[in-house]
Amino acid sequence: MKNREFSLLTKTTFIYLIFTFIAFASSAMFLTHETNEFIDRDVEIQFKKLEHKTNWYLQNRDGVPDRMRYVIHAQQITGAIDAAAFPQYTDTVMVNPYSDEQERYRRKTTIIQTDSLTYKATFTESIEDYLRLKDDIYGSLIPAFILLAVAIVVFNILLSGILFRPFNAILETMRTYKVGQSPAPDLVGTNTKEFNRMQELFHQMLGRIEEDYQNLKEYTENMSHEIQTPLAVIRNKLENLIDDDSVMEQHGDDIKVLWDETNHLSKLGNTLNLITKIENREFEDFQTIQTKSVIQSHIRKIEEFSSLKALEFETDLSDDHYIEIDPYLLDILLKNLLWNAVRYATDAGPIRVRTTAKELTIRNYGPPLDFPEEKLFERFYQPKNDSNSLGLGLAIVRKICDINDLEIEYEYTESQHIFRISESQITQ
């Protein structure tokens, strides 16, 4: 299964967001800790003041004034008490007598020792304002993170249109480059060091590719051309031997084998040269061709041969079927598919050729394949019962489909071999 791909910008943005989230989470934890310590210190200062007042009230007056009893409660202790268990702190919710609203309070219970008496004093201090401030600080971090995350995403998207514009232009140059292209693609103007280095390496690679391609092309063309001369001589000599009855009586079978192999070698050279040109995309006369008349023309050319096998063609051709392709490649495509149908068809039924607005289908009756389907379009793979085949016809068909964004499918059903050609669903 192919791994899912992400752009560099997406990965960078994702890393930034993770880092930002960690920074905000750490900041939230730090601020929470500092706020708690601030609340504890400030409330403790208030408790110290209340404790000091309480101590003064107990020593200089009869007790805590009524107006202070809401925040101070002092009770005399006559028995023994464990002073080490104090002070004690608790948080609670009480109704504020001034606002009549429930608020959060903190209580401190401690021991106060006067000259001769011991008191257990409880002080109450509102912490509502502190906690609200804490909640506001903590709550503001979430929208701040969301705003910053959106700002990072938007900024990176806008920045990519400027910063990555040369990079995308370089990628487009790489995508559209074709071997043998002349002149070489221009350099993309950029002052980014890494992009210029990438272009430099790309053009160095192009130089090596072009040199290797020209050498291979020259070698292939020379071999294809030069091999035809000795093959023509051999074929001519074989024709002379075939005309000699006495030689044919003694060596007829051997001469026939030599004749077939000579023709086979001649076809092989031409076919391999054709495949090389197709792979190097040398056929670029792309046209939008209505296929109906072209298919009919190819069927007329092959009908004489098909009649020798008692085969008939049935056609259902749409006027709306078009293919954008080089006309020469379309001829090769149709010729190979139709000849393949005739070569392997039986007289159990007609060869059916049908087109719709989106699809070309060729059907012929015949026995099932005696080899795996995946080898059908494999180069040089020959059926066991067909020694005359080069094993290149359907390989060429697949190659033509691949470079023209066409999809070819094969299936065997109801004793019929079915080839379908349609527009590829994958946009190059």
Key features?
single chain; 428 residues; alpha+beta; Beta-Lactamase; Heat Shock Protein 90; 3 domains; five-stranded mixed β-sheet; four-stranded antiparallel β-sheet
Short description:
This protein is α+β, with helices and mostly antiparallel strands and 428 residues long.
* Percent strand: 15-25%
The secondary-structure class comes to alpha+beta
Largest sheet: 5 strands, mixed
Could you estimate the helical fraction of the residues in percent? 40-55%
By CATH, the architecture of the largest domain is named 2-Layer Sandwich
| Unreliable stretches | none
CATH class of the largest domain: Alpha Beta
What overall geometry do the principal axes of the alpha carbons give? rod-shaped
Mean pLDDT: 81
- Strand tally is 11
Distance between the termini: 20 Å
Count of alpha and pi helical runs? 8
How many domains would you count in the coordinates?
A: 3
Q: Radius of gyration over alpha carbons? A: 46 Å
Strand order in space, largest sheet: 6-8-9-11-10
- Kindly report the CATH topology of the largest domain: Beta-Lactamase
Write the layout of secondary structure elements.
Blueprint: H1 8-60, E1 72-77, E2 88-95, E3 102-113, E4 118-126, H2 128-163, H3 165-176, H4 193-243, H5 245-279, E5 287-290, H6 291-308, E6 313-316, E7 322-325, H7 327-344, E8 351-355, E9 359-365, H8 393-403, E10 406-413, E11 416-423
Parallel strand pairs: 6-8
Antiparallel strand pairs: 1-4, 2-3, 3-4, 5-7, 8-9, 9-11, 10-11
Helix pairs in contact: 1-2, 4-5, 6-7, 7-8
